[in-house]
Amino acid sequence: MMLSQKILPAFSTMREFERFLESDYEVGIFLELHVSQLKHAAKMAKDRGKKMIYHVDLIQGLKSDEHATEYICQEYKPFGLISTKSNVIRKSKQKGVLSIQRMFLIDSHALEKSCQLVERIQPDYIEIMPGVVPWMLTELKERLGIGIFAGGLIRTAKDIEIALEAGAEAITTSDPELWEEFAG
């Protein structure tokens, strides 16, 4: 599943979500959300023709496991799901939902463990956190052969350009100023 959108707006509040709904972007990422807001958010997005990616690990009131994943997929039909957990990624793939494995680059050991997990699970995309390490983006894209999203600590248009040049297919950012700068 290819994405043509280079910026993936990410948001944690209803106010930020409403700003996304007013934007020209088709796909957005809900980072933090309470389970009681899911139905309303999903309907608002659908009514505006938006495709939602939910970060399963950050939905308050749901345990981020395969049961919650199945529930979200059946009840809300998301475009995609993000998680650090392999059971969530496996279930989202099984349900035909875009699966994004989040990887934190904190040290060499974490990197190796994450790569082994990605090689086993084969998500549709991986999201690299932080996304401001261009040589690592290039290395992981070559090593894993999976599309990469760069996120975390991306603060400027130059950071975005560097990450895209290094091989990221899209940038996840919660900075509305960057959304606007790269819109259209």
Automatic annotation (TrEMBL):
<dbReference type="InterPro" id="IPR013785">
    <property type="entry name" value="Aldolase_TIM"/>
</dbReference>
<dbReference type="Pfam" id="PF04309">
    <property type="entry name" value="G3P_antiterm"/>
</dbReference>
<keyword id="KW-0694">RNA-binding</keyword>
<keyword id="KW-0805">Transcription regulation</keyword>
<comment type="function">
    <text>Regulates expression of the glpD operon. In the presence of glycerol 3-phosphate (G3P) causes antitermination of transcription of glpD at the inverted repeat of the leader region to enhance its transcription. Binds and stabilizes glpD leader mRNA.</text>
</comment>
<keyword id="KW-0319">Glycerol metabolism</keyword>
<keyword id="KW-0804">Transcription</keyword>
<dbReference type="InterPro" id="IPR006699">
    <property type="entry name" value="GlpP"/>
</dbReference>
<protein>
    <recommendedName>
        <fullName>Glycerol uptake operon antiterminator regulatory protein</fullName>
    </recommendedName>
</protein>
